[in-house]
User: Which sequence fits this backbone?
């Protein structure tokens, strides 16, 4: 084993089998969920990573965003609190280290396995994480739209969900009254 792999810094490996395509990020989080069904663990891993993608869009993950991600992963993943905390911490660190290269790959993997309802639910959760610190920045909103597009969510669905977070959107807060 190379030192880079031991430290988790080796570039993500890609599976040659398109059906088994999985990023190193998802594998790392999945290992923390070994007691779960492997498919469910992969789903939770990609879900948590995408949450951290939005939280880190402005290059700063606030304590409020972290707590909201932990709450969401605990509730949606039906995980005990210590396991949810571990998953979120791994997702955050993986996103900070490899987000630029893993973002699209993990989202594509989630898109391939999630139902349309799960994708819409994820979109609501992305807005909730972004709004956790009382402000959805323009950068975060842009990242959420990118993710929505990658998931095949329509503009109408996106706008409908975004409307529920209107009071948190920084772009609207900055408008003169």
Assistant:
């Amino acid at each position: 084993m190379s030192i880079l792999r031991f430290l988790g810094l080796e570039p993500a490996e890609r599976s040659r089998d398109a059906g088994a395509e999985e990023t190193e990020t998802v594998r790392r989080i999945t290992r923390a969920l070994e007691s779960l069904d492997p498919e469910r663990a992969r789903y939770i891993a990609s879900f948590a990573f995408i949450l951290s993608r939005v939280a880190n869009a402005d290059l700063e993950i606030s304590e409020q965003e972290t707590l909201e991600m932990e709450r969401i992963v605990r509730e949606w993943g039906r995980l005990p609190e210590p396991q949810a905390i571990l998953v979120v911490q791994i997702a955050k660190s993986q996103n900070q280290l490899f987000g630029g290269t893993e973002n699209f790959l993990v989202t594509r993997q989630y898109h391939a396995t999630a139902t349309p309802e799960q994708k819409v639910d994820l979109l609501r959760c992305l807005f909730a994480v972004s709004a956790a610190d009382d402000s959805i920045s323009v950068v975060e909103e842009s990242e959420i739209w990118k993710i929505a597009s990658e998931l095949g969510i329509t503009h109408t669905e996106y706008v409908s969900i975004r409307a529920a977070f209107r009071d948190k959107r920084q772009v609207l807060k900055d408008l003169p009254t």
User: Anything to note?
Assistant: The chain is about 70% helix and 0% strand. The chain has one domain: 23-173.
